[in-house]
Structures are given as C-alpha cells and as structure tokens.
Design brief:
Elements: E1 8-20, E2 31-40, H1 44-49, H2 58-71, E3 73-74, H3 77-92, E4 96-102, E5 114-120
Parallel strand pairs: 1-3
Antiparallel strand pairs: 1-2, 2-4, 4-5
Helix pairs in contact: 2-3
C-alpha cells in the first residue's frame, strides 16, 4: 500500500515592520505586517528518520522573509505576498504555498485587512 502525503509546514503570526502604504505619510514610517504561511512539504522522511536535514527549515524561511520585507519598501500588501511567495518557492523548493499578509489597523473600523494568495511551482 502506498501512502499519499498532503503534509504542510506552517508559520503563523510572523510579525515584520516595513515601510508600506500608498499615502505620503505611510512612506516615511514603519508599519507592522503579520504573515501566515502554509507550505507543502513532505514531512515523512524527517518524521521517519528524526533527521533535521530532511525538514523544511522554518527558522531559515522566517529569516529570509523577514530580511526581504524589512529591506524593501512597498505600496501594497499584494506586492509583499507575491514577493514572499516567489522567495520561498525559489530558495526552499516549496511546490505549493499559501501566503496571508495582514496589515492590522489599516482601516479605522476594522481589526485587520489582509490578502491571501496561493502559488505553486510550475513543472
């Protein structure tokens, strides 16, 4: 019997400060973004061997995302989501991922605004 895997690695609530926004006043300040990622990864080899080398290193993924977002200026959270997806697919060979980028407090009467994208590597 062949076991079919649908494994995921999650990073939730990754908080990063960056320059983000379309208004002039936003272009001169840092604002908080919160990122949630769901990444397809076959966890079975690591689970069977207990070998960290076979894992998707979520610490390195988090560091790479933080470096990318903090080092750049953005107008749109949609752009942040796209850039993060491209980075993770390219650097970590993730076949599929879902990225949620939240900008808490962007709207006075809302707790949060966010975009969610799903991307996959082309064969």
């Amino acid at each position: 019997m062949k076991i079919v895997t649908k494994d995921r690695v999650l990073i939730e609530g990754l908080t990063v400060s960056t320059t983000i926004g379309v208004y002039e006043w936003e272009k001169n300040i840092k604002q908080k973004l919160v990122l949630d990622l769901e990444m397809e990864w076959d966890n079975q080899p690591a689970g069977k061997s207990d070998d960290v080398a076979l894992c998707l290193d979520y610490f390195k993924v988090s560091q790479a995302i933080t470096s990318l977002v903090e080092a750049n200026k953005f107008e749109l959270i949609e752009c942040v989501a796209e850039r993060v997806a491209e980075l993770v697919i390219q650097l970590f060979s993730v076949n599929w991922l879902r990225v949620k980028v939240s900008k808490p407090g962007a709207i006075t009467n809302a707790t949060n605004v966010a975009v969610v994208i799903e991307r996959s590597m082309c064969s």
